[in-house]
Amino acid sequence: MIHEQRQALDEMIVKMRSGRLTRRSFMQRAAVIGLSSSAAVSLLEACGGSSNSTGGNGASTNIVWQSDNDTTNTYKGIVDKFNSTIGKQKGIHVTWLQGPTQTQDMLTKYNNMFRARSHSNDIISIDIVYPAQFAEQQWTVPIDESKWPASERAKYLQGPIKGCTYNGKLWAVPFRTDLGLLYYRKDLVPTAPDTWDGLTKAAQGVSPSKAKYGYVWQASQYEGLVCNFVEVLYGFGGSVLDANDATKVTVNSPQALQALTLMTSWVGGISPSAITTYTEDLSLAAWEQGNAAFMRNWPYAYVKSNNPQESKIPNKFDIAPMPHGGSETAGHSAIGGWNIAINAYSQQQDASWEFVKYTLTPESQKAGAIGASYTVTLQSIYDDKDVLAKVPLFGKLKPILQDALPRPVSPKYVDVSDAIQRNVYKALKKESTPADALKQLEADLKKVVTSK
């Protein structure tokens, strides 16, 4: 099946499942795209579509949620619960669409959908780096105070909310987040360092005498390098773009020079020379073999590192907040995560908000934490006894999450990220001095943020 046929069929199935397409129309369109009648009937049966149904709960309003990829069926459970309770009361039925495993595939789908001004998906899940881009294109609708007041927003993690905010407006709600963590070997280092200089000295003290490497992180030229760079940069009090004006470049600062100079010194020092090829999995592999005293990675590495079937260091490590530097008193993790937005072309925006609002409830947030170990955004979840019994790590995460920050918020994030990757990597490879790399990064970013 060619790509265009697959897209057309996907949209037909969505409409059939949500009651927007009759059986007859489905069969007619299937014939047009070259599907045999027997194959079309089989698909109809799989969709549960034999009539012009209005949804599984007798609803008069049908909406479709395209989520990110969830292999745990947690999202399905949230949707089913909504449909059988609030949805049933208000005449709303949500159809859940499983997301692709590759974020880029989802972005391609969204680009095609929005350029066609389609409302095939009323609600969409978007990665933390895209709310500003979608807002600039007017693809999503802002969520104002009347829908989600400041008193309610205050109950949620502020870093993800900042990542969803552009030009003073909120363009998505943060369902779940992710964050960089400092892992340290508690059998080698008695306490986690508070500062980046402290980490450097502690790593020098145990490497190579007690561990092959002092510190492993992600220094390959890809998105992971952006996260690592901004974590050190934020720790020194620096920034890439002005938080209140995405067209103002702030990266060429004394704080950034301190940060990049320190990172450059790690390469071939407390970190292997090959660190410039390391991604998350390569860092984790070295760490699990007991070859590093410190590691920067995401929460997924915690469970894997404690698994004796794949790790040599179970129960020999702990996690800590990202260190700080200079005159700063707190470090900041870079966040990842997924957010939920409403399609600006949807004809069911009010009904869509009812479901989006439901994903923020303690019930839904708790389901995400327990069902999939998602680092959800409602702060009270990290104190919930049921959640802590299932995911003990959450007891350590709350204070770190409260200081976490987004990567630069820009409608041109893809190009911003590319500029950071290229110039920081040159400094790490000693192909440019830190000062020259930051000067060039500043020039490149100014071109990006002012381009039309």
TrEMBL record:
GO CC aspect terms: ATP-binding cassette (ABC) transporter complex, substrate-binding subunit-containing
Keywords: Signal, Transport
CDD domains, per database record: PBP2_TMBP
Pfam family, one: SBP_bac_1
Single GO MF descriptor: maltose binding
Signal peptide per UniProt: none
Gene3D superfamilies: Periplasmic binding protein-like II (3.40.190.10)
Entries under InterPro entries matching the protein: SBP (IPR006059)
Biological process (GO), any one: maltodextrin transmembrane transport
Regions that span the bilayer: none
Keyword Transport: yes
PANTHER family: MALTOSE-BINDING PERIPLASMIC PROTEIN, MALTOSE_MALTODEXTRIN-BINDING PERIPLASMIC PROTEIN
Similarity comment: Belongs to the bacterial solute-binding protein 1 family.
UniProt-recorded name of the protein: Putative ABC transporter-binding protein
